[in-house]
Design brief:
45% of the residues are buried. By secondary structure, this protein is of the alpha/beta class. The protein is globular, with a radius of gyration of 30 Å. Strands 8-7-6-9-11-10 form a 6-stranded mixed β-sheet, covered by helices on one side. Helix 27 (633-643) crosses helix 28. It folds into 4 domains: 2-41; 49-140 and 165-390 and 422-549, no CATH class; 584-687, no CATH class; 699-781, no CATH class. The longest helix has 31 residues, at 114-144. It starts with a helix and ends with a strand. It is 54% helix and 7% strand.
Length: 782
């Protein structure tokens, strides 16, 4: 109606030009009015959409920077006639590693902050921008080569895949889905570095801070985000993991195209989602390092294929980048690195012997040497840092061969305790070998995890193992067999170094590629083979279909779907302000602390949210603090001052049992002198006092009954024995200097520890209780 009137007044041509702008103005006004209505119910600035949109904007900058510089790296490390299969996968992985290196450099130069948050991706993008611009036509053509038209079956499959990715993404959207290890060290280290303004030495010798840190370094960049608070920092770090997972999926397609030449296989990425462990704690996406490592698995194999024929130097260097990406993500990713490294070495030896016979230049040997040198150079952010700061390139693994620092008298014992908890095989050599052979076929359904995670339910996904029975009967399988062998070698390495279920995630992209390849070859073979493959795949999919809803998160007891439902439901009624304040158990303690604070967290592993530098005194993980060895509150005070500790978080009067009796007495005697400045639940936080407490007599009156210390008077140093359980360890308790019998006069001592359940337990007149563990009370003399 108005359009016709405008046409009469202005003429058809002018009206046609003005009409879209009038539509824009009308809809903009309508949008403004509707926004005002919504704003009255829930202020627009509080909508979660803006927070997630900002995070995705940062992820886009990260991804663009990685692909830009990675494309340049792959361009220079490729031969002119190199097939372009897997170019995106190789480029993105190389770019992520470059991002890690530059962020590490910024960290060692203490340059973490708002400026580096912008400059790091900007610099990497700029470095590769010229080459990326040149390659855009070829990249567009490569993307179109597979065609865009989808068959009805592909449409259904892609829709199912999109649903699976949506369920996985729910893990990312809700901070409470963070795993224990994420809150303990993966992202807690990033928070620690961001608060410090750079990468700093672990003064206490914390094992978690000396492990490979590619994930934590990337997250350190995320924790420097210029706006928002803890919610935005965590969400950006979690979204980076999701971006890396998404970038892994095209690699499956590329690898399948290499295994089965001539196929499009654009649906092959769906094979990843047939492994239900992706939806189950603790193998899901939760801010950890397993899926970061998995990003480099396929680039490692594709690089090996490029290098295999004659070991050209460029291809070998590209392989070195991918292998370093695996190893800098986590030690257990050696499961995916070992096979390609062994294969490259054996191939190099073979070619070298052949070249010696032909009296030609030893190019293969030169390539092997250059690859080794590149590997050592690219991993310096890890091993050189540990060597300089701790005296051991793999601190504390090689502590018997290096003069490590820090270290304490019980370091050997507690490192043995730490190793015993790492899912390493035990028993005789024969027993271990039998276990290794079993793992080759039962890794997907036997219990390789803590039994209270998902019991004996097989959640990893068994299509890789159980589809292999078809491989001998199919044609064109030579390349697939090679990857199968490489994957099984990876399982062997996984079994020996740490056979926890989630550490198989670095091999998952290879497994998915094998499954997809077998599916393609079976489909070519005829309808009986198709029926067989669909039956096996259908069984696995139906079995895993309800796993996303299982309440298996170890800290919340809920499923990702359930947590997401509760999280977004909070937006109704009260506006959901509390949901954007994650990890309040520690965030509440850290809020208000002055900049530059360094907080010691007593005993506990979890501390993400403090927003400060953090120090751990966990006896199993930190070898620079041993309260029993220090022997007095004054010595502890001096050590804390030397370490730069300004505050302590602890639970007053609570004994955990990790420390020796002497250690608990010394710590809590010192803690009894502190003034609490904040509380969160049962945790207190106190500022370190200016002066050390006065000295105390180093004697202990102990009253136990049965199986441990005999009642009597001891020197404090005699109670430094750790009673922490260790396989094959038998504690030999010392005898008291002065035995005590019930009814005797109570001896004078600086400390006392008494089991109230023992017959004749004395009343501790003249002593003040400082802590307790069950019926055992800890005292100091008045």
């Amino acid at each position: 109606m108005l359009a016709a009137l405008l046409a009469r007044l202005l003429g058809p041509r002018l009206a046609e030009r003005i009409s879209p702008w009038l539509v824009l103005a009308a809809l903009a006004g309508s949008t403004y009015v509707l926004a005002g209505i919504f704003h009255e119910q829930s202020p627009l600035q509080n909508w979660l959409f803006w927070r997630y949109a900002g995070v995705w904007l940062c992820c886009a900058a990260f991804a663009a920077a990685c692909f830009s510089v990675g494309n340049l790296i792959v361009h220079h490390l490729s031969e002119a006639d190199e097939p372009k299969t897997g170019h995106f996968t190789l480029s993105f992985a190389a770019g992520v590693f470059a991002f890690f290196l530059l962020t590490s450099l910024a960290g060692f130069l203490h340059g973490f902050g708002k400026v580096s948050f912008v400059l790091i991706p900007a610099a990497l993008f700029a470095v590769g921008a010229k080459q990326l611009w040149r390659d855009l036509p070829r990249l567009r053509e490569s993307a179109r080569s597979g065609g865009w038209a989808l068959s009805p079956v592909e449409v259904a499959a892609f829709a199912l895949g999109a649903l699976g990715l949506t369920v996985i993404y729910l893990n990312v959207l809700v901070p409470d889905n963070a795993s224990y290890d994420t809150r303990w060290y993966h992202l807690a280290i990033a928070e620690h570095y961001a608060a410090a303004g750079g990468i700093i030495r672990s003064v206490e010798g914390n094992v978690t801070v000396t492990l490979p840190q590619l994930t934590s370094i990337l997250a350190s960049w995320a924790f420097c985000i210029p706006w928002g608070g803890l919610f935005e920092r965590y969400e950006l770090a979690a979204h980076l993991e999701f971006v890396l997972f998404l970038a892994t999926l095209p690699g499956v397609v590329a690898l399948v195209r290499s295994l089965v030449p001539g196929v499009s296989a654009r649906w092959a990425w769906l094979a990843m989602l047939a492994f239900p462990s992706l939806f189950v704690y603790d193998s899901s996406l939760h801010g950890g390092a397993d899926h970061v490592a998995a990003l480099f698995a396929i680039p490692t194999y594709l690089s090996l294929l490029r290098a295999w024929k004659s070991l050209p130097l460029r291809a070998c260097l590209l392989l070195a980048i991918s292998v370093c990406g695996l190893l800098m993500s986590k030690y257990t990713a050696a499961a995916a690195a070992a096979g390609p490294v062994v294969a490259l070495t054996l191939r190099g030896i073979w070619l070298t012997v052949s070249q010696l016979r032909g009296r030609v230049r030893l190019s293969a040997l030169r390539s092997l040497g250059a690859t080794l040198g590149a590997g050592l150079l690219l991993t310096t952010p890890h091993w050189l840092k540990n060597l300089i700061w701790h005296g051991d390139p793999l601190y504390p693994i090689l502590h018997r061969y290096f003069k490590v620092r820090p270290w304490n008298d019980e370091g050997d014992f507690f490192f043995a305790v730490y190793q015993e908890q790492q899912f390493v095989p035990t028993g005789t050599l024969q027993h271990k070998l039998i276990g290794m052979l079993k793992a080759l076929y039962d890794h997907s359904y036997a219990l390789y995890n803590w039994s209270d995670f998902h019991g004996h339910y097989p959640v990893f996904g068994s299509l890789f193992t159980f589809s292999l029975v078809a491989l001998p009967f199919l044609r064109g399988t030579k390349r697939t067999w090679a990857l199968v062998a490489m994957t099984h070698l990876g399982i062997v390495v996984w079994y020996w170094i740490s056979n926890a279920e989630r550490y198989l995630q670095c091999l998952l992209p290879w497994m998915a590629a094998v499954v997809a390849s077998i599916g393609i070859l079976a489909w070519r073979s005829g309808w009986p083979a198709r029926v067989g493959f669909l039956g096996l795949t259908g069984l696995q999919l139906v079995w895993g279909s309800d796993m996303p809803f299982w309440p298996l998160h170890r800290m919340t007891g809920k499923s990702p779907v359930g947590l997401a439902n509760e999280f977004f439901a909070q937006g109704y009624g009260n506006g959901g302000e509390g949901r954007t304040k994650p990890f309040e158990d520690f965030a509440a303690l850290g809020r208000g602390l002055p900049p530059g604070s360094k907080v010691l967290v007593h005993h506990e592993h979890l501390h993400l949210g403090l927003g400060t530098m953090a120090v751990s005194d966990s006896t199993r993980m930190a070898y620079g603090i041993n309260y029993g060895e220090l022997g007095s509150a004054a010595a502890v005070h001096a050590l804390f001052r030397r370490y730069g500790i300004t505050h302590v978080v602890w639970e007053p009067r609570v004994i955990y049992g990790d420390e020796s009796v002497a250690g608990d007495l010394v710590f809590h005697a010192y803690a009894a002198t502190w003034q609490t400045v904040g509380k969160s639940g049962s945790r207190h936080i106190a500022a370190l006092p200016a002066e050390a407490p006065p000295p105390r007599e180093a004697t202990v009156f102990a009253f136990y009954c049965g199986g441990s210390y005999t009642a009597g008077l001891y020197p404090l140093s005699a109670l430094r024995l750790s009673t922490y359980p260790l396989r094959g360890k038998k504690t030999r308790f010392p005898v008291p200097q002065q035995p005590y019998t019930a009814g005797d006069p109570l001896p004078h001592a600086g400390y006392a520890v008494v089991n109230d359940n023992c017959p004749g337990a004395p009343r501790m007149k003249g002593y003040t209780q400082i802590a307790a563990q069950g019926s055992v009370r800890y005292y100091v003399s008045r």
